[in-house]
Model the fold of this input.
Amino acid sequence: EQTYWPAFVKMDIEGSEAEALAGSPQLLARCPNWLIEVHSRDLERECLHVLAGTGFDIDVVNPRRWLPDRRPIAHNRWVIATRPPSDRGRNRGRGRHTRVGFVEGS
Done:
């Protein structure tokens, strides 16, 4: 039986993102592209903690710079995790190329 592994995961599950990431080590090891929407600084820190040491390049961006958003959410950012093409398909957990860039503002 063949197993399908996605090339991209977009996650927005209303506060349980870090828990879902922590419970998905096989998916984290095999999926090279993630967009995780977070709605609090604490949740953002938790997601970054789970992703630390997984070999992803990590950026944190404020989507409101490009997309109008009128929802009354004070903190709405995307954690974007991508694995360099040369690392795809290898065993993970080495913590290479991790960078976090914070983009503030509305």
User: Anything to note?
Assistant: The mean pLDDT is 77. The two ends are 48 Å apart (CA to CA). The chain is about 20% helix and 20% strand. The helical segments are 17-22, 25-30, 41-51.
